[in-house]
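Hi X.,

You mentioned you wanted examples for the new student's onboarding notes, showing what a folding record looks like when two proteins sit in one file. Here is a clean example. The first protein comes first, with its sequence line followed by its structure tokens.
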Amino acid sequence: MDDIKTQHQGDLEHHVKQGLAWLLASAEGENTAALSYAAFELRFAIERIAVHYWATLLNRELEAQDLYDIRSFKRIERRIYELAGYQKNIDGHFEFMGIVLCALKIERPLHTPQIVKLSNYWSDCSELCHIGWPLGCAVPELRKQAFTKLTEISNSLSQHVNSLGWPLLRDAAFIELRNQFIAGSATKKDVEAHIQKTGLWASENYLDGRPPQFIGVPVAPRTSD
């Protein structure tokens, strides 16, 4: 129980770690109250990750009116889709960024967010935060199922918080190339050729106010012969 904190913290990993601590305290589901607390923390974690993605995609300073958008997970989910497009676009963007990271020799995990899966996980956690769980948890099979599902959720969320995040593009021509790649009118070879022709560099931005830092190995533009 030493890993269970009595105060909330703002870092991206906090609620995932708290969920894992409560899962450990549950003795593989036998301590049913601990499972409820694990579910509650993991639901917080899902919302925190979604807010992180949304704030990144906003690509500006947060304003007071933005707080309305984070009052429910479903609203955050809608805002992510409005800014990034639906899952096909998200998948294409992250596949494109994988090519870019390889070109920059950035060897860091890049996990593609599956927004529908996050939404389903949020619902799964919520079920254990309602009265039906305390009333039904005397059934051994239900305890086992709940522990297995929360373990799956915690493993998935760990991938999110250990990932590079949601990379953004700044250059208009590069954004257009990304859009063509998603649409299927540009290939991986087209992307690599563009990078070699124009050059490329990347920086990592932080939401906590730290200054941006260059990452990876910049690609110098190819000089004409």
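Then the second protein repeats the pattern, sequence line and then tokens:
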Amino acid sequence: MAGCVSKQDLDSWQGIPVAELDKHPFFLTVPVVRTIASDGTEIRNYVNGQNVASCSGGGQIFKSTVDMASYSGFSSCMQKFQACNNIFYIKDGRVQQYITSGTGGSICMTDESMRPGFRGSKNF
């Protein structure tokens, strides 16, 4: 069903080494914004949407880990554009949690191709 997020798809990432996320064919194809929370948790937002560059500061936000203020500014800017934000919380080299958040009226979806270990071909 279009516009459906499966809890199973999200939960399948819990405890998975971040190296698996780094090799996933979908997450390799979308821009990622990274920041570090005050407790040391890395937060990665893989943004699937249009007009992402409008909020990127000329692409600077995608080049390295940004401070929380820059991350928040990017997130606020993206509220006016349709996108699905695929947000991963990472600690000690492992995914702790994966959530999705639609902006600008966008509805996120997941399926088995969004799970760890997927290496097939698919039009995302």
